[in-house]
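Researcher: Here's the sequence for the chain we discussed earlier.
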Amino acid sequence: MPGILNISLDFELHWGRFDKVVLDGVNKRYFENTRSVFPRMVQLFKDYEVHVTWAIVGMLYHRDAAGWRALQPEQYPAYEQKKFSSYEWVKGNGLMEPADPYHFAPDLIALLEGVEGFEISTHTYSHYYCQEAGQTVAQFRNDLLLAKQVAAERGHQLRSLVFPRNQFNANYLSVCAEMGIETVRSNPACWYWDANRPESLAKKIFRTGDAYSNLLGPKVVPLHAINRSQTPLQLPASRLYRAWTEKSAVLNRLKLQRILNEMSYAARTGGYYHLWWHPHNFGWHPEECMEELKNILIHYKRLKKKYGFESLTMLETKQKLVLADF
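Model: Thanks. This is the structure I predict for it:
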């Protein structure tokens, strides 16, 4: 069976960074750059016939603040640290009227509709943190109901999910299944990506080092090692694409080569390779990031021609694995 490439993108704009980034003039330009480069990113995937899972924060579906206010949950996430709540952020900071390009993006979502090889999935409704103290299963269920509602209004059926901040919570998988979610993105099977371990300097050092060096081995999973009996199916992430940086040409080169080498390994061995990032990661250096993405997609086409390497969405991967004869 040929190897499989998954690309999943966490599409969130400022909803994914409100607890970390002040929306000042500089950061507004960051998200404006993101909006500008987004259609080009979409077109590049189409040009190279690459399938992509777009995990969208449900709040992005709204056209304006009035629409956002009209759809509120029955239970708000009761985080002990209120700074993690997007609802609390809006309460303290407000939304732009009548349009808010940093929090609403129905125009960009429209670019994904009807494209062969694109799967529209969910990143929860409110960028919900499933590992934070205080929130509950019931609140998570309510959040997913809202995500399904806004997506259904656009004719989108949500069948895959990516947990915000990679806060994978196995206790919530039954809720996902209940809501019709068939696949979720899980974390790499290594201690420094384990969401159940507290964040530490050591975890950050190993995650960073692994992005540039092969000392810890390729993050490729044999297809037969994916547990097909799971509901929903857990598809492990392999590699975060780290955006181009002006700080070091060496690190840019090492990072990109690490990704290309892992793709080659997956193609040669019939393995599973899952690359992910956020569209807003292209916000600071869009041209350089687009050039790196193009190199990745060109490499994929070479591997497809040589080894039959397949680009699939998360849902397509699940459907293929269910039929596989391992």
